[in-house]
Task: structure prediction
Amino acid sequence: LWRFGYSARLLKTNHFRTAASNTSFPAVWMLLAQYSGRIPGPFVVVKKPTFSTMPETVEDKANPELYSPHPRVRGMTLLNREAFKRTVVVPALKVKKEIVNSLLKSLKQLVLQRPGLKRVVEDPDDEDSRFIILDPQKIPGFSLGESEQQVLKELSVDPEVSRYNLELTYENFKSEEILRAVLPEGQEVTSGFSRVGHIAHLNLRDHQLPYRHLIGQVIIDKNPGITCAVNKTSIIDSTYRNFEMEVLAGEKNLVTKVKENNTVYELDFSKVYWNPRLSTERGRIVELLKPGDVLFDVFAGIGPFAIPAAKKKCRVFANDLNPESYHWLLHNCRLNKVDSKVKAFNMDGREFLRGPVREELSKELPLMKEEQKNAFHVVMNLPALAVEFLDVFRHLLVGEPCSAAALPTVHCYGFSKHEDPAKDIQERAEASLGTSLDGRCSTYPVRNVAPNKEMLCISFQVPADVLYKRPCP
Result:
């Protein structure tokens, strides 16, 4: 009864008589004694090692349910925070308040660590004393080890362990513990998400969908700054690179602000593509650029490659087919005060390569000298399709090839489910270009997208015999 948080009023009911018949005599005696007022407050001092005040299951340090929410929450689909309450018994040490800090440092590995719980509580019977709450998982049998007892002896602390009736509430449980208690036993629990400003972006499994609104609210409750939780409801649209989503909990405002690599972006998450997991990769590419370089961003999105490159004093040509991405690209260029350094376009990727990119390369490459250090880079971050766009580089320019050092470098992204992803993406790039890249390219693993699905970046200078079409004599 005590363990599951029933009040002493149940002592008068048939529930108590039934439970008492299945409970050890000492435990029943303790319930009666506390109800009758013979034991004051929430503390019970253990006078003899053989005296038990609780069923043995509560003391069992291997009991995985000791810090689980109340079993009645199983199957809950509408969040009821009150239902998570339960009472457990934990060990506590009574100490003089002036040595609390010293003891906390000495026993920090044994002190109870739970969200929202105080490690030190007042003694209702002695204003000069405090109780330090210990973790029962680390105090087997509610008995301290020799090393801990030695610490107490040095600080003149009574090694006698008290038992404290601790009430755990919804606020004291972690999101994983709450979801594990709610979802059917044996089912996968996912509490991870991508954070986009104030938005938590989840990708729930089918078996989690009946609990999706509860899951969304738990994520909001347990993560400060998150005020909206959404779930992807369709695959990414290959045309505009966005996806349909459902607001699971919280506010419905999907216009948000994010900061990445010291650059601020604003976006409407429901209308444009943004993946915070690519932050490191975007930083890697920008790190390759030098002031004065030229960047052609074929699938620019809201500008996570283009804007940092412009801040690095590169000349940038940025394009995206999605009108919403184009709108936020312009907005973010103004926000970061690089709008004068970025030429933005709202075109199909092929048209962008055959139009502004070809025009700029035709104008600049013949002027390049051997000693000139500025470089041209082309970023193609559309992993589902970008490799198929590489055929545009075939005879994109007409005339005599420029110096090898001035040939544009392409950074093209792709997905692969092949057992050798690097070999796979190189072969696909070679098929689109119509030439071998052996010894002329490098592949970089970006991230694991799903089981047996990798995202990679292949980088190479476009071979002169591919890029140039020589004029007829």
Summary: The longest strand covers residues 86-96. Residues 1-63 have pLDDT under 50 and may be disordered. The radius of gyration is 32 Å. Residues 175-253 form a domain with the GMP Synthetase; Chain A, domain 3 fold (CATH 3.30.300.110).
